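Please think about what follows:
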Amino acid sequence: MKNSLRKSIAILAIFVLAAVPALAVHVEGTGLLWARGHGWLEVEGEGSVTISGTGLVRVEGADRTKVSPGWGNTWQERVGETTYTYYEGSGRLILSGDELEVRFDGTGRVKAEGTGFADFDGDGSWYTKKSGFRKPKYE
């Protein structure tokens, strides 16, 4: 009985630890962020985000949007009081807003400019420019 209880607790611990996402990178402040590669990226704040790539983009709070023809599938989804706009495909997408939230899952390049924060993970490289300071990161 004790042995099966230990196994159950061990299995539960593995599932709990596996459910916690490992955040590879978190940056915040005012300035520019450039990222390129494959993975996911979430940006939240005031400013603009330009995405050139292939994948799925979820947007909330964009005051202005410029979409190239390659983003073939576009739809909206309402969750509670929030309406998300989704873009799926490839091309260039330029978004700006005062309370902008963007998530990109895919391959490509992202430039975010303004004030806020970003979380991301994947294979690639990134750097920030803040008050003339450039810091290259993982490659």
